[in-house]
Amino acid sequence: QVQLVESGGGLVTAGGSLILSCATSGRSLSISRMAWFRQAPGKEREFVALIPRSGGRTYYADSVKGRFTISRDNAKNTVSLQMNNLQYEDSAVYYCALDRDLGFTSTYYLTREYEYWGQGTQVTVSS
Questions:
Q1: What is the pLDDT of residue 57?
Q2: Cβ-count burial of 57 within 10 angstroms (0-12 exposed, 13-18 middle, 19+ buried)?
Q3: What is the model's pLDDT at position 102?
Q4: In whole numbers, what is the pLDDT of the chain averaged over residues?
Q5: CA 56 to each of CA 6, 52, 60, 105: distance values in angstroms, whole numbers, following the listed order
Q6: Residue 103 DSSP SS3
Q7: Is the pLDDT of residue 101 over 90?
Q8: Cα separation of 91 and 42, whole Å?
């Protein structure tokens, strides 16, 4: 059984930083691509960042480029999201997602691309 558990969310003032972590079990990260999504109240869940199984080229939503960094540690089965210069608009529930990495797909930003999801962690940025 694949499980993903996010942690690290909280309340931070604008301009601050947070590090989110996603601990996985039941599936080797070495064959998986990992992503972060977020969902604000009243909005659809949106793509934030992706890291392929190789840990090579990463992908980001335009709104977080240059501020967020996704990384992975396959040995520890964890994926992290370093978030810097947080803004009010970044407030949301953040979810990590996992799927078997079968190669690059141009639809990596769609929620339907991912089979497994965590329960989410709340990030609140005060202005």
A1: 92
A2: exposed
A3: 83
A4: 95
A5: 22, 7, 13, 15
A6: coil
A7: no
A8: 12
Rg (CA), the chain: 14
CB 25 within 8 A of CB 2: yes
Contacts by residues 114-119 (CB-CB < 8 Å, ≥ 24 positions apart)? 114/35, 115/2, 116/2, 116/3, 116/4, 116/27, 117/4, 118/4, 118/5, 118/6, 118/22, 119/5, 119/6, 119/95
- Residue 37 φ/ψ, nearest 5 degrees: -125, 170
pLDDT at 54: 83
Q: Could you give the 3-state DSSP secondary structure of residue 82?
A: strand
State what percent of residues in the chain have pLDDT above 90: 83
Which strand (E) or helix (H) includes residue 124? strand 121-126
Hey, what are 87's tokens? 């803004």
Do the bridges between strand 59-60 and strand 46-51 make them parallel or antiparallel, or are there none, so unpaired? antiparallel
Cα dihedral angle (23, 81, 62, 103), rounded to 10 degrees? Answer: -40
The pLDDT of residue 48 is 98
